[in-house]
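Quick one, T. Sequence first:
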Amino acid sequence: MPKLWDSTVEQHRHTVHAAILDATAALITEHGLAVNMSQIAAQVGIGRATLYKYFPDVQTIVGAWHERQVTAHLDQLTDVAATDRNPGERLRAVLATYLRLSSTGAHPGYDGGPASQVAMALHSAAHMPAAHQRLHALVTSVITDAAEAGIARTDVPPAELATFCLHALAAANSLPSLDSRERLLEVTWNGLLPPR
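Structure tokens:
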């Protein structure tokens, strides 16, 4: 088969795969978990038989959608951590980005409605341990750089500080407003500063 044909088929498969994930997220946002394969196929504009070539059931589609969301968030955090800023600014930017990404209402479907509840349930899915490790390693690295620059405290190991930050900022899901989330970010930041 010519390379162009392979590329075109692969691109088509990728486009259909993404459309299935997007359609499923939209249907769950509207109807909750009472979504079936026929509805998804109709929303995408493909036959059920074609849908089954991509995914065996709704649960697998939802898991793939969630994994895509988590990967996109980790990629965003990695990009922020790679910016050319001083170590303190980079750490603060990573924490602020994590807070924004983990907060309710930060992205489509995370409004406390059905899709948000599904996403929260999926945080114990099989793809999550590797994602948590990647996130923890990223935050630990940024804290290490800040500590070496004299900006973050050194009396607590960076890995422990990363655990503290991630747990503290994850609490933002239960906070009612942007102001309350900003206050939480400030408290977390102050906890990272060297003791006086």
